[in-house]
Fold:
Amino acid sequence: MAQNKLHVRRGDTVLVLSGKDKGRRGKVTRAIPAEGRIVVEGINVVKKHVRPGPKVMQGGIVDQEAPIYASKVMLVCPRCNEPTRVGHTRLEDGRPVRVCKHCGEVIDR
Ligand SMILES: [Zn+2]
Structure:
């Protein structure tokens, strides 16, 4: 499914719905709308082998988060701390904002 807009953004806390990190929460550190994927802090960590080179003085194995599909996570509302679907955005001060379906609070500041 091609989509160029994600329901989560950088800085959001999300709940992972499937995969090896199912049930865990983390903060979105990177959003890749073109791929429909996101990178979440501490989620889907893979061992990456790094060769010594101009940028990295010492080779070895480093832990790095690999992107996961945004459709596999649920946004966690920063107000009520519940995983939630995002309600239809409404306008506030002329800008569209996301609204939590649990508590009705505006998620975006
Ligand atoms: Zn809420």
Q: What stands out?
A: The first strand starts at residue 13 and ends at 16. The mean pLDDT is 89. The domain at 1-76 is CATH 2.30.30.30 (SH3 type barrels.).
